[in-house]
Amino acid sequence: MEGKVTSQNFVWAEGMSDWEPMIQVAALQALIKPDPIAEPELVLPQKQKENTNELKINSSQNEPEIVFETTPDNPVNTAKTNDNSNDQETISKRFPYRFLKAGLIFSIPVLFVVAYLYGALNPLLKDVSFKSAYIEKWLNKIPTLSRFFSPLPHVEDIKTEDLEELKIAARAHPGTDGPKIAIAIAQSNVNTPSFYLAADLPDNTKFEFYIEGIPDTLLGHLSFFQAGNFLLNHKIGKTPAITFSDGILPRGEYWLYVTEANEQPPETSQILSKLDISQISLPSHLPKGKKLIAKKTFFLGGIKDTLYAERLKEFHEKVRIKAKAELDEIKQFTQTLDSQIQATISEFNRLKHIKDQELQQTTWTSFHEKWGHLENQLQETFNKWTPETLKNEMFYNKLYEIIKAVAASALELHQIHNNYFKTKVDIKSFEIQLGATASQLQNTISELRTKTEESEKLFLSSDGLPQKGEV
Fold this sequence. Notes:
Order of helices and strands: EEEEHHHHEEEEEEHEHHHHH
CATH topology of the largest domain: Four Helix Bundle (Hemerythrin (Met), subunit A)
Distance between the termini: 122 Å
Number of strands: 11
Structural class: alpha+beta
Shape: rod-shaped
Number of domains: 3
Largest sheet: 4 strands, antiparallel
CATH class of the largest domain: Mainly Alpha
CATH architecture of the largest domain: Up-down Bundle
Strand content: 5-15%
Strand order of the largest sheet: 8-7-10-11
């Protein structure tokens, strides 16, 4: 290359007999050491000159620039050369390791997120024992992680929005922001539904549930009620399936109430002892003084569509016809019983003053047979009014129960009258017994008349259905 020579190039100066390799010139021995193997000429690109370890000798006489390459055997500038080469060697060794370490650190969370998004971690995350042993401990330490991990075991038959409510309740720690209770319906079987409950409470916490149909909404039925119990495990519990005697649950709206049971594990009892009684109200026929109460309405038994609305309207019309018929029947029974009562009282008061005992006995016996014949007919009807029949088939079941009470008191009064003519009685004791029975009977039949009138007024003033059994 022009202007540059290496240790293997030939040089000549005044006084030399011929051109000789520069390495053989004595004047240059102090600067270079002969290479054991001839080096080829090394020409570097112009842009890399500043980055190489080269020794440059510039001549003030415009002599050619001589560049000597430094080698491990070349003593020129050894201190600087060794320092730079060591630094470069250290950097070259450390750089791949640091890069690999940083890459691994960065890739681990990335791989974890990718595996989570693609569901590769689902089998592990669904494992209840794994969650209890590891994940829940970390969730308590780092609450932010709860956005990525469900506090509940894997459940597939719950709507997304309902599942989020259950998760919130399961994260509500007792004594701080909880405990809270959330309930959701299972989607697996709509004909015989069951319900989930979530709460951050110990395993084996006991709950009771009550499901009650809203009368005005039930299709084909006037009422529905069912109760049961279940346990909480891993912050979630499930009620037994709700069944109906006819198979399919009546279509309509239902109230579901859930409360804690009376008997609890010690750990749960300790938590409940620190809580106040819930302010959520329950119907009068459900237990009082509960501390954990959840209630929610559900439409069960089918779809709430236009067909349901049409059929419900038709059913309400039939129910109103039936309710009116019941009120008319109740008034008729009231009149019949009142007639029976007045007949036995009147005949007793008339015959007890007759001096002719034979005539007295004959006349009373004839009356007693007639009175008893009608009484037997009434009793045949009353025997059909079993508690189950009154509850399930009668709209004004409480009024029918009062009718049976009036009939029983009327029969008792007539038996007292009959004993007066058929047996020998103590007059003083007889009058006391007669007065008490007659007074009780009059109070009962007065109650029947009053409540029948109230029910009829309420029925006529409302287009909807009164509560079943309302009097």
